[in-house]
Design brief:
Layout (H helix, E strand, L loop, with lengths): L2 H6 L10 H25 L2 H6 L6 E2 L2 E3 L3 E3 L5 E3 L6 E9 L3 E7 L15 E10 L2 E13 L7 E3 L6 E8 L6 E9 L9 H17 L15 H24 L11 E3 L2 E3 L3 H10 L11 H5 L6 H11 L3 E2 L3 E3 L2 E3 L5 H14 L5 H27 L5 H14 L2 H6 L5 H19 L13 H12 L15 H4 L1 H5 L10 H26 L26 H10 L3 E2 L6 E2 L20 H4 L2 H7 L1 H7 L2 H24 L7 H16 L11 H19 L10 H4 L1 H10 L4
Parallel strand pairs: 13-14
Antiparallel strand pairs: 1-11, 2-5, 3-4, 4-11, 5-10, 6-9, 6-11, 7-8, 7-10, 12-13, 15-16, 17-18
Length: 714
């Protein structure tokens, strides 16, 4: 393309040596570092600059309330939580902040996740010119190993005379109080982690802002500098996935065995048990079966099961399939065959599930980027590097990957495995058509491999096989115009697509028959879980409330850290409503999807038949999978991964057909970029919510409270 043509199309000329793009990237980094430095010094250290105006610090006299007692070793013990306070004499001063020095004797950190402890819940009560009696301030979490948390910025009215700090701990809790002062000067604190995060965010904002030159730099033809940018992007995504997977510290070590709580055994090493069964030539799991459970008329009755097993002092394995007196795994067997069995054969040891999830997360990133690349190469070679990167980041944040790696347990394994083979299979199908220069037609090896990979989803998460319906829009012209499928001249292509599904389905169906007596029964109904899955059935009355919660349930936000909390899941449905901790629907969490969905009607009216088919089939497949999720299973954010990726691809496919979007122009483009930025923020921020499995407030308080302190400016 000549410079004149590039200017006419608002596209930068391709730089063969990549120096232009590299110079821009380096400039972005330099500007980002300067922005981060300025924010770190002037904004995030505002409490230091502000404290310079407080005047001289003053140590205060203190006394203990009746709920605290001094022990022989000079530590203080809580004897009555209601009156466990330390009272200070402010001596009629204007109190701007309160410095506390509290330690817990014998407390040690178990890992970096608790390195800022010990953690105490406290509450300040104060008097001031507007309140002669004590009034309560909000609860505060004191981190003994984090210097910044020892300073409480107070906003009282005028001077104060008395203050109290209530120690909100249980009776018997002991601590060492080393003193307090008011109006203390806070130390200047340069947080390297905060600086790095802000620099990275600033660089991302510069790179993805609507006026960025990345949207005027074409992805094709592929050249070294573009490859470098894509590899760098994927590296950042992989690093993010690894960091998120390590945050909660959820590790299901097979050596620890199950955790027994009353009548329930929590054992998330199901794939290791399945691997042992396969190596022993069995399909049932070698787990102890309660005689009471075997004798029950209906072992799937949750309340009756819990009651009878509790009375007998026995237990059952939660989330295992139970059928005819044996435990089975209803999760797809492919991950066991590909990862857990080989590992056990090679090492003789069990494979940790969290490590498998971590590896699958990295492969997942490679797979969806490969799919995006193949889609761009086949359908939109005019797409820019910026749009490719934008779609990749959107996929990374909104596909549900962060949820799956944050809680790296068995539930994530079949979902990630299934999506990986689906993405790779679709990539093969999309790349199967020969270009005109290759004499047209299809590469049968790609057709076969694509079908084989998609069919493998039967061994991971069976509903993903519905993705095979996307063959119709992918091969639309070849099927309905050129008659290269389902015709005499298309026999080879047709067999290449269909035969792999049959070959994969045969062993999967035989496996089903060996376990549950029916080749079509995958065993999910026999799961020992929070409800009787065998009696659940399909009830269309579930649809409206379930669709509301899955798609449009608003976030529950407030002005108190971490600002996002679990939502109210109440419904009018007069039946059993099963759900897991929930933070909001897909569209509020990924609001950029709204723009693309709103653009479907005008785009659909102007699209070619193949494009219309792609939109319609994507909606159908996503809808059917979503319907199956809430009718057969439950309401959980984990299942976003089942259908969100289809909506992401659909939305970007639609947006690329709107005027000016490819060129990086127009209102729709700017709104989309802004909402993707919001999606990225929400995608990571909801990891801090206390109302989710593996909540960081419990599993990684150093990060939870560390983020709070990093953002505490007033």
């Amino acid at each position: 393309m000549t410079p004149i043509e590039c200017a006419r199309n608002n596209i930068e000329p391709v730089s063969h040596d990549g120096s232009s793009i590299l110079q821009k990237i380096l400039r972005y980094f330099a500007i980002s570092l300067m922005i981060a430095m300025a924010l770190e010094i002037l904004v995030f250290n505002f409490p230091f600059w502000e404290s310079l105006l407080f005047g001289n610090a003053k140590e205060v006299d203190w006394s203990l309330g009746p709920g605290l007692e001094i022990q022989d070793d000079r530590t203080i013990k809580v004897v009555d939580p209601e009156t466990a306070y330390i009272e200070f004499d402010a001596d009629g001063c204007r109190v701007e902040n309160l410095y506390l020095d509290i330690a817990v004797p014998g407390w040690t950190s178990s890992s970096w996740r608790t390195s800022t402890g010990p953690y105490l819940a406290i509450k300040v009560l104060a008097t001031d010119e507007a309140n002669s009696s004590f009034f309560e301030l909000p609860s505060y979490n004191y981190c003994g190993g984090m210097e910044s948390s020892k300073y409480l910025r107070l906003h009282l009215s005028g001077v104060s005379h008395k203050m109290r700090v209530l120690i909100q701990e249980e009776s018997g809790f002991s601590f060492d109080f080393r003193g307090a002062s008011i109006n203390a000067m806070r130390p200047f604190c340069f947080e390297l982690i905060r600086f790095g995060i802000v620099a990275l965010l600033a660089c991302a904002l510069l790179a993805f802002r609507p006026s960025s030159s990345l949207y005027r730099t074409r992805l094709f033809p592929i050249r070294p500098v573009v490859i470098g940018c894509i590899v760098a992007l994927m590296t950042v995504e992989m690093a993010g996935s690894v960091v998120v997977s390590r945050l909660s510290g959820v590790v299901d070590n097979p050596a620890n065995g199950p955790t027994i709580s009353g009548p329930v055994a929590f054992d998330f090493n199901q794939y290791n048990h399945l691997a042992e069964a396969f190596l022993s030539g069995k399909v049932s799991l070698d787990l102890p079966v309660s005689a009471v459970l075997s004798d029950m008329e209906n072992p799937y009755d949750t309340s009756a099961r819990a009651q009878e097993l509790s009375q007998a002092g026995e237990y059952y394995y939660l989330d295992y399939a139970f059928y005819n007196g044996h435990y089975y795994s209803y999760f797809g067997a492919l991950p066991a065959l590909v990862a857990f069995v080989p590992f056990k054969l090679l090492t003789g040891r069990d494979l940790r599930t969290d490590q498998v999830v971590l590896a699958l997360g990295v492969i997942f990133i490679c797979a969806f980027n490969a799919l995006l690349y193949c889609l761009a190469k086949r359908y939109r070679q005019d797409v820019s590097l910026g749009l490719f990167a934008l779609s990749s980041v959107s996929f990374f944040v909104a596909s549900g990957l962060l949820y799956l790696v944050f809680l790296p347990q068995i539930y994530s394994v079949p979902i990630l495995s299934g999506l990986i083979v689906v993405f790779l299979g679709l990539s093969c199908w999309i790349s199967a058509e020969r270009l005109d220069g290759d004499h047209g037609g299809f590469k049968k090896s790609y057709l076969i491999l694509g079908s084989f990979l998609i069919a493998l989803s039967l061994g991971c998460r069976p509903q993903y096989v519905l993705v095979s319906l996307l063959a119709f829009p992918i091969f639309w012209n070849a099927i309905f115009r050129e008659r290269l499928f389902f015709s005499k001249k298309g026999v080879g292509n047709t067999v290449s697509v269909i035969a792999p599904f049959i070959l994969v389905a045969i062993p999967v169906m035989l496996y089903n028959g060996m376990r549950f007596g029916s080749v079509f029964d995958f065993g999910a109904a026999y799961n020992l879980t929070g409800s009787d899955m065998t009696s659940r059935g399909i009830d269309l009355s579930r649809s409206l409330p379930a669709l509301f919660q899955y798609l449009v349930q608003p976030l529950s936000i407030c002005a108190r850290y971490p600002y996002v909390f679990g939502v109210d899941m109440a419904v009018d449905f007069q039946g059993y409503w099963f759900y897991e901790p929930y933070l909001g629907g897909l569209l509020p969490i990924a609001p950029f999807l709204l723009v693309g969905l709103a653009c479907i009607p005008p785009v659909l009216s102007k699209s070619k038949q193949s494009q219309k088919a792609a939109i319609i089939f994507s909606l159908i497949v996503a809808s059917v999978i979503l319907f199956a999720d809430f009718q057969i299973a439950s309401i959980t954010m984990r299942y976003f991964s089942d259908f969100s990726w289809l909506l992401i691809l659909l939305v970007f496919g639609v947006l690329l057909q709107t005027p000016g979007f490819v060129e990086g122009k127009g209102v729709i483009f700017r709104i989309t970029v802004a909402l993707i930025g919001l999606t990225i923020l929400l995608g990571f921020w909801i990891l801090l919510s206390p109302d989710r499995y593996g909540a960081l407030v419990s599993t990684c308080p150093s990060v939870f409270y560390g983020v709070a302190q990093m953002l505490c400016l007033v």
